[in-house]
Write a structure and sequence with these properties.
nine-stranded mixed beta sheet; 14 helices; Dihydrodipicolinate Reductase, domain 2
C-alpha cells in the first residue's frame, strides 16, 4: 500500500460507500446464491469460512482479503482442498485482495455477506465499511480494543438496524444449545437472585511469531498481533471476553458500574510476548451489590479451567465450555443437569445468520457484543492503571490505540508495558 491511511480517513471513507447500499440484496427474498467474502484469513477466518459454506447449498465464497498474501493463499488452498466445501470456493486472482485497504476492495467486489476475522483492532473500521455498504456481517469477537472503537461499533450497529442488515457476533457461547437452556433456567429463577459470578479463564501459554530479517516493525507486530495491546486488546479482551459475555448474559445484559483489579507479566516476560500481561484478576460490582470475580491466566505448565460459576439466593450453577457439565443445584439439594441435544455452536452462528438473510429477517447482536467488549476493556483499564474504573469512565475514555497510519512503514503505537500506579487512565 502506498502512503498511510488513518483510522479517521477509513471512517470518513465509509460514508462514501453509502451509495453501494442501494445495490439489490438478492437474498432478501430468499433467491439466488449468497456470495460471501472473507476478511482475515488466519485460522479463525478459515474456520468461519468453512462454517459459512456449510450453512446451505446456496452459499459460495467469492472473495478473500488479508494484510498478507501468504495467509490468503494458504487459507484458499486449505478451503479448496476441503472435500465438504471446496466445490463452493470460487475466488479468482482478481478477487484476492491484499494490504491494509483489502477490506474496502472486497466490499466493493459484489459480495452479500462479509466475515470479519482480522485482529480486533480493525473490527470497528471494517464493520463500518461493510454496514454502510449494506452488507450482512459475521463479526468475530472482540469488536474493539478501545473505547472509541466500542462507541463506533455501537453507532454502526444502529445503522445496521436502519439498513435491515445482519450483524452476528462471534461470541459463540450464546449459540450453544446447552448454554442457552442453562441461562434460560437461571433467568427463570432456578438459582434465585444472582449475587456472585466467578469467571475463570486459565490457559497454558500462548503463541508468538518471530521477527524475521527484512520485516518492518509494523510487519512484525501484525504477524505477532496477539501480543500487542493495540492489535488484540490484551488476552483478557481477545479471549476472556467469551466468559465475561456469559456473565453479562446471566445478568440479563446488565453491566457493572465499576471495577478494580490487578494483573501483570510473571512468566511470559520475553520481548516476543510484546506488551500484554499473562494474568489478570478483576472484581466488577453492580449497582445492587452483585459482583463478577474475573480471573484469567496464560502461563505454560498450569492447569486449565474455563468456566463460569453462578451463585444465587436459591442455588448455584456451573457453565463450562468443555462439556464437563452444565448444572443448577438448588439449596434444597435438587440438581438439574443439562442432557439435551448438543449442537456445534460455531456452525449454529452461521446457520442462523444465513437463515435470517434468506428470510429477510436479519439478526443484530450488536448491542451485547459491543458492551461485553467494553466490559473486558474496562477490566484491562483497571489492571493497567491500578485504579477503580467506572462504567462511565470506560465508555467515555479517549484512549485511542490505533496507529498514526496504516502502512508497512508506519510506526506502531508505543510498546511500553503498563505499570499499575504509573500508567494513567485516559
Amino acid at each position: 500500500m502506498q502512503g498511510q491511511t488513518t483510522r479517521r480517513e477509513i471512517l470518513r471513507g465509509a460514508a462514501g460507500l453509502g451509495a453501494l447500499s442501494t445495490l439489490p440484496m438478492v437474498h432478501a427474498a430468499g433467491t439466488g446464491t449468497v456470495r460471501v467474502g472473507l476478511v482475515g484469513c488466519g485460522g479463525r477466518g478459515t474456520g468461519a469460512a468453512t462454517q459459512a459454506l456449510s450453512a446451505g447449498s446456496d452459499v459460495k465464497l467469492v472473495a478473500m482479503a488479508d494484510a498478507f498474501a501468504d495467509r490468503l493463499e494458504g487459507s484458499l488452498s486449505f478451503l479448496k482442498a476441503d472435500s465438504a466445501v471446496g466445490s463452493k470456493v470460487d475466488v479468482p486472482q482478481d478477487r484476492r485482495f491484499v494490504g491494509f485497504d483489502a477490506c474496502k476492495a472486497l466490499i466493493e467486489s459484489g459480495v452479500d455477506v462479509v466475515l470479519l476475522c482480522t485482529p480486533p483492532q480493525f473490527r470497528p473500521l471494517h464493520l463500518r465499511l461493510a454496514v454502510e455498504a449494506g452488507k450482512h456481517v459475521f463479526a468475530e469477537k472482540p469488536v474493539a480494543v478501545d473505547a472509541p472503537g466500542v462507541r463506533s461499533v455501537l453507532e454502526t450497529c444502529k445503522r445496521a438496524a436502519e439498513k435491515n442488515v445482519s450483524i452476528v457476533s462471534g461470541l459463540c457461547l450464546r449459540y450453544d444449545a446447552g448454554y442457552r437452556e442453562t441461562v434460560r433456567r437461571i433467568h427463570a429463577g432456578a438459582a434465585g437472585d444472582v449475587t456472585t459470578i466467578l469467571a475463570n479463564d486459565y490457559r497454558s501459554g500462548r503463541w508468538t511469531k518471530p521477527k524475521e530479517p527484512g520485516m518492518t516493525e509494523m510487519m512484525y507486530q501484525m504477524r505477532n498481533w496477539y501480543n500487542f495491546t493495540w492489535l488484540s486488546g490484551d488476552f483478557n479482551v481477545e479471549q476472556h471476553v467469551h466468559h465475561l459475555d456469559i456473565c453479562a448474559w446471566v445478568m440479563k445484559n446488565r453491566y457493572p458500574v465499576k471495577a478494580i483489579g490487578m494483573g501483570g507479566r510473571q512468566v511470559l516476560t520475553g520481548p516476543e510476548y510484546g506488551q500484554i500481561y499473562d494474568h489478570f484478576s478483576v472484581v466488577y460490582e453492580y449497582a445492587d451489590g452483585a459482583r463478577i470475580i474475573s480471573n484469567c491466566r496464560q502461563q505454560p505448565g498450569c492447569k486449565d479451567d474455563m468456566s463460569v460459576q453462578v451463585v444465587g439466593t436459591k442455588g448455584q450453577a456451573l457453565i463450562t465450555e468443555r462439556r464437563k457439565g452444565l448444572w443448577i443445584k438448588g439449596t434444597t439439594g435438587d440438581t438439574w443437569y443439562y442432557d439435551g441435544p448438543k449442537n456445534e455452536m460455531y456452525q449454529q452462528e452461521h446457520d442462523e445468520l444465513f437463515a435470517g438473510v434468506r428470510a429477510g429477517k436479519p439478526i443484530n447482536n450488536g448491542e451485547y457484543m459491543a458492551r461485553s467488549t467494553l466490559l473486558a476493556i474496562m477490566g484491562r483499564m483497571a489492571a493497567y492503571t491500578g485504579q477503580e474504573i467506572t462504567w462511565e469512565m470506560a465508555m467515555n475514555s479517549q484512549e485511542d490505540l490505533s496507529p498514526s497510519g496504516y502502512s508497512w512503514d508506519a510506526a506502531p503505537p508505543t510498546s511500553a508495558i503498563a505499570i499499575p500506579g504509573q500508567t494513567a487512565f485516559r
